[in-house]
Design goal:
Shape: globular
Largest sheet: 7 strands, mixed
Number of domains: 1
Strand content: 25-35%
Bound molecules: inosinic acid
Strand order of the largest sheet: 2-1-3-4-5-6-7
CATH architecture: Alpha-Beta Complex
């Protein structure tokens, strides 16, 4: 029987991206919903770094469930805002994802086209409660913030994050395409190798 891997995220947008990227692994994927947690369940993120929060999330849910657990912490870092919203991306302003996009667009309204660079950063942590082993890996994805929202796919800041090479926002890409270029895709590719070499043998 294959080993269970808990994907410790309450984010509706992240879970399918993670399973899509790790799909080929010989594990049974479990979501928090599969363990009976409510859809709006939030794991605390008290750290000031992505790595700190990813480790806390993986360890908290790994200890509670007794399962091999993978968690990510990620966010948007805007050059002209000195790296904000960073670890506060999910809580940058109250309301929905769309409200947070509007806030960024407003903050950047006077920033010229050449200075609108930004990046997504993703830290993945893997924790095995049987051995107490923790490993992390990181992915970064650079682009720029456009002046209005485009596209309806994805989640979070995807409609305002533009990829010049592909000529579209994240929200105009298929999930496969986004995973092939994104911060989460890059971190998960590394995580897949780490899982195979260090946790599933
Ligand atoms: P957390 O990692 O659950 O704390 O939240 C990360 C937040 O960063 C999300 O709620 C989004 O606002 C933003 N974010 C992270 N990754 C992405 C992405 O791939 N696309 C768009 N927004 C993202």
């Amino acid at each position: 029987m294959s080993r269970k891997l808990l994907i410790a995220t309450g984010s509706k947008g992240k879970f399918p991206e993670i399973v899509k990227e790790l799909g080929a692994l010989p594990v049974e994927f479990l979501s928090l919903a599969d363990l009976g947690y409510p859809a709006d369940y939030e794991i605390e993120e008290p750290a000031m770094t992505f790595e700190g929060n990813a480790i806390i999330k993986a360890m908290t849910m790994g200890k509670k469930s007794g399962l091999l657990t993978l968690a990510d912490d990620s966010g948007l870092e805007v050059d002209a805002l000195g790296g904000r919203p960073g670890v506060f991306s999910a809580r940058y302003t109250p309301g929905e994802d769309a409200d947070r996009c509007v806030k960024i667009l407003q903050e950047l309204r006077n920033v010229p086209d050449g200075e609108r660079g930004a990046q997504f950063r993703c830290l993945v942590a893997i924790y095995d409660p049987e051995t107490e082993k923790v490993r992390t890996c990181e992915g970064i994805y650079r682009g720029r913030i456009i002046r209005e929202e485009h596209g309806t796919n994805g989640f979070g800041y995807d409609p305002i994050f533009y990829n010049d090479e592909l000529g579209k926002t994240n929200a105009e890409m298929s999930m496969e395409k986004k995973n092939s270029v994104s911060h989460r895709g890059a971190a998960l590719k590394k995580a897949k190798e780490i899982l195979i070499k260090e946790f599933l043998n």
